[in-house]
Description:
It contains nine helices and twelve strands. By secondary structure, the protein is an alpha/beta fold. Strands 6-7-8-3-9-10 form a six-stranded mixed sheet, with helices on both faces. A four-stranded antiparallel sheet has the order 2-1-4-5, with helices on one face. It has a two-stranded antiparallel sheet with strand order 11-12. Strand 1 and strand 2 (23-33) form a beta hairpin. It is globular. Residues 11-251 form the ABC transporter domain. This is ABC transporter domain-containing protein. Keywords: ATP-binding, Nucleotide-binding, Translocase, Transport.
Amino acid sequence: MSGPLPVGAALEVESLSVRVRGRALVDDATWSAPAGRLTALVGPNGAGKSSMLRAIAGVVPERAERTGRVLLGGERLDALPPRERARRVALVEQLADGAPQLTAREAVRLGRTPHHRMLGFSLGDDRHVAAALDAAGAMALAERPLAELSGGELQRVHLARALAQQSGGEPGLLLLDEPTNHLDVAWQLELLELVRRLALDRPVVMTVHDLALAATHADRVVLVDRGRVVASGAPSDVLTPERIRAVYGVDAEIDARPGGVAIRYRRMAS
């Protein structure tokens, strides 16, 4: 079994490809996400953002052909057994759900499943669950059923479950698929503030549709199109009018100010 990850372990994706029946969902993707930074994966619908997150987490379609390497702190995640990998990497999917009758605490406790060969929990698990609820700002929700929670509250619970999943509380890799989807503006900002705090000692990667949101809140941006990485780096270097035009097929005017980035779009002249 591998030892604890060093604080500051970076994610490195090297020549990652996922193909199903000859069609590339992810195509020779190479990029990195440092610890202590929030990295945003952006791209059009169907660009392969979610497929890339799932491949990093070791979740690929049945009969898919997967090549390339994924490393965390220099350790090959793709070579680890599934249970061990699940202790290193937590994925919160866009359609994350849970049994509505469960309380938030019970849902978060399920994140400890990779740490046991048989279904069951320990007092040590309860400590990890409490710490995860606290880190996600969800302790006040602990005894409430999931069915009673708002979208923003549910996202906090899903984040807490992901944190509880990671081994012994050591920071691992946190992957978030569209965490701001279906949230109003206030909840989006609150969630992004939380995610930035979680990124202080680990790499956090999120997919996001809103380019202005990525440009304002992410430290690094990876632009994806048709499964391939078009560019990666600082938001201002990656999200240029020229690249937005080439990838999204629209003209864009970018207004970057200290308080945030606004992007205005218009159809390309025919």
